[in-house]
Amino acid sequence: MPSTFSPLIALILLLLWHTCQARDPFACDPKDATTNNMAFCKGSVAIGERVKDLIGRLSLQEKVRLLVNNAAPLPRLGIKGYEWWSEALHGVSNVGPGTKFDAHFPAATSFPQVITTAASFNASLWEAIGRVVSDEARAMYNGGTAGLTYWSPNVNIFRDPRWGRGQETPGEDPVLAGRYAASYVRGLQGTDANRLKVAACCKHFTAYDLDNWNGVDRFHFNAQVSKQDIEDTFDVPFRMCVSEGKVASVMCSYNQVNGVPTCADPNLLKKTVRGLWQLDGYIVSDCDSVGLDLDCGPFLAVHTQDAVKKGLLSEADVNTALVNTLTVQMRLGMFDGEPSAHPYGHLGPKDVCKPAHQDLALEAARQGIVLLKNTGPVLPLSPQRHHTVAVIGPNSNATVTMIGNYAGIACGYTSPLQGIGRYARTIHQLGCQNVACTNDRQFGPAINAARQADATVLVMGLDQSIEAETVDRTGLLLPGRQQDLVSKVAAASKGPTILVLMSGGPLDISFAKNNPRIVGILWAGYPGQAGGAAIADIVFGTANPGGKLPVTWYPQEYLTKLPMTKMAMRASKSAGYPGRTYRFYNGPMVYPFGHGLTYTHFVHTLASAPTVVSVPLNGHRRANATNLSNRAIRVSHARCGKLSITLQVDVKNVGSRDGTHTLLVFSAPPAGAGAHWALEKQLVAFEKVHVRAKGQQRVGVNIHVCKLLSVVDKSGIRRIPLGEHSLHIGDVRHSVSLQPQALGIIKS
């Protein structure tokens, strides 16, 4: 099936749209004389006053029926029922009951899974995807088939490589995850502080990264997490999502943290999310969890009224919850009458699956695919030399597999077989019936195909039967006999052998990395509806790869004596504990975080950078021995403001192809301090820059000292280590000394 709707289909949908009746107003219908003069229906009144007016008109019985995802209608006030639960992880999805596809909206653009898009390290791309998804969501809302509250994105840290839902996340680095969260949320919600295009939700707060492993499930797991790891790893993406992205909602998780369910922990929710981070929105429970402002499930609607009668909570508590949810609905314009009168009221079927949206899905896949190996270099293949290509593997003709989980119905698909077929004649063999690859019955035809072709492309890896929500992996190797198939095909191949991997989580493919017969390896993640076209474009050089791995690829041995239930991030030599993610692990790797090759070659030169930066301190505190011996000051005792380090980096493309470079900047704390904080290095900045062949571009990099050069002590206190910080930009190393501006009156 082609990856775009035909003009004829688009015309038919447009005619259907004009002949059908769009959504009636959710509330405040201009034709309803009973509500026209009520304050909650008047757009000229401040939203806070409108919400107060509406709550004041409700009985307790009516109020409690609004505390659940399928909120009840209020006919006497002209308010319809509303389903809060919709999903838009990487495109409008029908996973939640709030969104349905129908004849007018048969599909929506399905972008690459988040782990793939994160590999682009391109914040402007993430925001652009959010804008497209919210366009399509608004169009479907206008047509009566979707809601306006989307419980996306998932910004949990991909802590353990076996986690089945790691594919939904932006990876293992907290700054990367936080930047993704803020960018995607801005795209979804828009940038008007008082109005929302749609309402996003960052989930699942917090320390949630285990679904079902070795008899332990997410519903009963008690995550034992240190204050240090909470502050400098698990909470960072959520803080950035709320503080920088201004997200309208946070979802708490199923698990407990240190013995307390996250959905019932006032320190996490009231003190942190609302207090410190200033959430302007509502907190929702994960489905059938405990419940806060809004319960995904029936519990609050069934039991709240009785709880008020028994004095377990007050009606004022119920009112507070309703203020948070109703304010979001008001900001969405749901109480402003006719949807067609809204700024997005013109959106309809013509705005869903439109060519520009599908082109962006293709571009996102191209940017997210990572070139792991290119011996020779043999890649890209040439249509002039490689006339016939054997396309082999259980994912070689994949369609639905490419969109991962929490997906909807895609506009259409281009499979890898179809994509490669645009460049060369193909000989297709599965080799394995599916990714489980339990036997070698289909090996023979696959091997024979490789013997005949000018080049061989194996498309292997995983799918949702191996990694998914409720399904954690047991190991990192390719399933079943996939490795055997790859090795035998490579040995028999007449031409170069290219291995393409679809997966959310990392794979131990050391055998392929070390096999000289396998000259190229690509990781495509789950590349979305246009994934096959993107793979082919990179294999044949129409697109130049620039993606970087957002997770560490560990060897299988890494998992030895490493339970998923062990939450500690930092390594412990005495306990034989290896540590987790590139920030705390320095053992053997298949491929490191940030690895990714290109068809050209970029060289960095540091054009300008400071060598000494003064950190201004609050002047009313007295130093003590502890503070001086650790040579680190509390962030709260520094005058952070806009205290930043600005670098100017020249990026030169010395190759023969135009390319887009992913500039990653890491920081390592002062010598000696690294051991004290148990930190190897951490990502502090990343930029995307397009450079023509033989050309050069200067890139400005801004590093906020307090946010990005700080570390966290064992008490969970964020501090700035004084002394020489080492900045790593590719092969370039630069030292910046952080010095107190007026030491002598600080307090630890």
From TrEMBL:
GO process terms (BP): arabinan catabolic process; xylan catabolic process
Q: Which InterPro entries match?
A: BXL, Fn3-like, GH, Glyco_hydro_3_C, Glyco_hydro_3_C_sf, Glyco_hydro_3_N, Glyco_hydro_3_N_sf, Ig-like_fold
Its recorded name reads Beta-D-xylosidase 2
> What superkingdom does the record give?
Eukaryota
Please indicate if the UniProt record lists Magnesium as a keyword. Answer: no
User: Is this entry keyworded Transcription?
Assistant: no
UniProt-recorded Gene Ontology molecular function terms: alpha-L-arabinofuranosidase activity; xylan 1,4-beta-xylosidase activity
Sorted alphabetically, the keyword list is: Glycosidase, Hydrolase, Signal
Q: Would you indicate the residue range of the signal peptide?
A: 1-22
* Annotated Fibronectin type III-like domain residues: 661-733
Pfam families the UniProt entry points to: Fn3-like (PF14310), Glyco_hydro_3 (PF00933), Glyco_hydro_3_C (PF01915)
